[in-house]
Amino acid sequence: MLPQIAHFQRVALDLLFPPYCVGCGKEGNYICGRCSRELPYISPPVCTVCGRPLLPDNQCPGCIGQPTVIDGIRAPFLFDGIIRRAIHELKYNNLRALVPPLARYLHEFLAENPLPGNVIVPVPIHPKRLRERGYNQSSLLAHELGNLSGLYVIDDCLIRRTYIAPQAKAATAFDRMKNIEGAFACADARLKDKQVILIDDVSTSGATMTACAGALKAAGAAAVWGLTLALEL
After folding, report:
1. Where would you tag: which of 2, 46, 137, 214 has the fewest CB atoms within 10 A of its CB?
2. Tell me: domain 43-231, CATH 3.40.50.2020, correct?
3. Which H helix or E strand runs over 175?
4. Are the C-beta atoms of residues 192 and 169 closer than 8 Å to each other?
5. Which residues contact 160 (CB under 8 A, 6 or more apart)?
6. 208 with 224: CB under 8 angstroms?
């Protein structure tokens, strides 16, 4: 769709169905100015692997001695407050109008914290869940980020092979890692030698992004960095 047409369609929809802030309910924007100033930004220093804030002694207990195939995971926010509500509205209540503002947060984060990458790949969902939900929120975010950044998006190479329970329902990080083991694969060699920025909406333990990175590197990807809207502590 031409950008001008998409813009006019959004303007028309806003006139008919004005957006309301997911934080305070104020009419005007899905995340108003006041609520945007209250977003749970992650402040440095952060773990070089998982991207979570470090403890006062500059240690990250969850990553000590834990080798990982992913080059690193980064996010602008903690999974809390307004950003948690926004992701929930996008993911479960079909509020896809949140995609542009949320993708802008990712774009702004990348501009200030560049990651090595020449292609964007969204974390895929299983075809059964895609039929149930009707869309993959990570793919929507990836394409919007691609439009903003100029990076090419490939969303049909990395695939999800197994249908499993949502990762949030797994009790521990170990359970999540076992739950997701072998779930992803690459359908072809298009990502060989590419530096991949892997996009998801939220990362709980890093297990899903790590499993995706394993499949991408098995298919020849040179590097895989995870970029997600929020990290859960």
Report:
1. 2
2. yes
3. helix 173-180
4. no
5. 124, 125, 126, 127, 183, 184
6. no
Tell me the residue ranges of DSSP E strands in the chain.
72-74, 77-78, 119-122, 152-153, 158-160, 184-186, 195-203, 223-231
Reduce the DSSP state of residue 33 to 3 states and report it.
Answer: helix
> What residue spans in the chain does CATH classification 3.40.50.2020 cover?
43-231
Instruction: Report the C-alpha gap between 80 and 178 in whole angstroms.
Output: 26
Residues 207, 125: Cα–Cα separation, whole Å:
14
Predicted pLDDT at 13:
47
Cα 174 to Cα 36, 49, 68, 233: the distances in Å are 34, 17, 13, 15
Q: For 226, what's the count of Cα atoms within 13 Å in the CB-facing half-sphere? A: 34
User: Model pTM greater than 0.85?
Assistant: yes
The closest alpha carbon to 213, from 228, 202, 199, 224, belongs to 224
The 10s digit of each residue's pLDDT in 48-95 is 899 999 988 888 866 765 678 999 999 999 999 999 999 999 999 999
**Residue labelled with tokens 């609520």:** 35
Q: Buried b vs exposed e over 141-156: b needs ≥16 C-beta within 10 Å?
A: bbbbbbebbeeebbbe
- Which tokens hold the place of 180? 């997701």
Least Cα distance to 211 among 107, 70, 28, 90 occurs for: 70
